[in-house]
Amino acid sequence: MSDSARVVLLADDDPVMRELASAKLKEAGYSVTTAEDGAEALARLKKMDADLVISDIDMPNMNGYELTEAIRKDETLCEIPVMVITASDQSDAVDRAFASGATSFLAKPMNWSLFHHAVKFVLRASDDRRELKTAKDQAEAGARFKDSLMSVMSHELRTPLNAIIGFGQILAERFDQQQDNMHNEYAEYIIDGGRRLLNSVSDMLLASDARSGPIGINETDVFLGDIMEEALGSIEKTLRLAEVTPVQRLCSENLEICCDRGLVAKAVRKLVDNSVKFSPKGVSVVIGAALTRGGDLAIVVKDNGPGVKPELLDKVTAPFEQIDMSFQRSREGLGLGLPLVQAIAKAHGGSFRIDSVVNEGTRAIIVLPSRRVHEMPGSMPKQTKQEQGREVA
């Protein structure tokens, strides 16, 4: 916006000051309206569209502090920048002005050669702030729309996908009975594709929930061994194709945990799937679980794959991010695996971290707080908690 289109409201009880400042502003191309005190300035301000308020501090009826506070409390005026002018010898005058909501200040006697530049700087800063706020509002609106769209689409896709998977299973069973291997294989492709898409849809819905706050969990007491069985059971085909046989090193399969069984199993499954997906065939994958010195449960998934560069660790835990997100990438996926693991750990009051060394492998650790762990009599081996903690650390 050009300076000639700018409107400045000048409030000062000194007529000489009003005249000089007004003349300088008009000379610079601004449109100027004047007021003799804060009360008159506020009344005029409510009837006009001003781009800037310049106010003296020491005025009758309503001083500069009170005028600034009144402007900031008014929803229709609160975004207008306010410059205060002070000749006060009180050391806290500037602090009080900023505390009242002032944008900038000028000191008397005025340096008229710099006056126009100071006004121009404040107006430019106000424009930048307004543009940033608009961009922020648009970004937040876009994020809300994306989350809403993800949630709606996830719900809308689940019903037809369940039907596709269900009827695919019926067809597969029929073709298997008829020993029609070719059509049975086609049916298995349908089932596999439907399940993968359903998993992606479920992940999108969970990611949408996680953006709105901690995801809801359905707490139940479950054995550690049952969680591991559920986690690995649904990726048997993936492990078989990758020629991977995970090694489990659990402190006890009968250790009881109060958690959301499905979500914790999903988190472990995501970590194992990541180890397999981003590693060559036959990679070594170890799944460990042990109690730390503080009694927390640490679940570890470790591999000897290619590892991740330190500068990329933050990127791989961001939603919809993979190290390679091009259309030509060799690994499929939405990039939601590790962010979901992080969200699941957070929902349980726990934590998640990744340690990785290039060409040596990656270690992912989920820590569940001690209050969720119930030691069953005879469930723990003779190894001490301290020894277990050293294994995990």
From TrEMBL:
It is an enzyme of class 2 (transferase). Residues 152-372 form the Histidine kinase domain. Residues 7-123 form the Response regulatory domain. The keyword Nuclease does not apply. The modification 4-aspartylphosphate is found at residue 56. Pfam families: HATPase_c, HisKA, Response_reg. InterPro entries: CheY-like_superfamily (IPR011006), HATPase_C_sf (IPR036890), HATPase_dom (IPR003594), His_kinase_dom (IPR005467), HisK_dim/P_dom (IPR003661), HisK_dim/P_sf (IPR036097), Sig_transdc_His_kin-like_C (IPR004358), Sig_transdc_resp-reg_receiver (IPR001789). It catalyses: ATP + protein L-histidine = ADP + protein N-phospho-L-histidine. It comes from the Bacteria. Its EC number is 2.7.13.3. Keywords: Kinase, Phosphoprotein, Transferase. PANTHER family: OSMOSENSING HISTIDINE PROTEIN KINASE SLN1, TWO-COMPONENT HISTIDINE PROTEIN KINASE. This is histidine kinase.
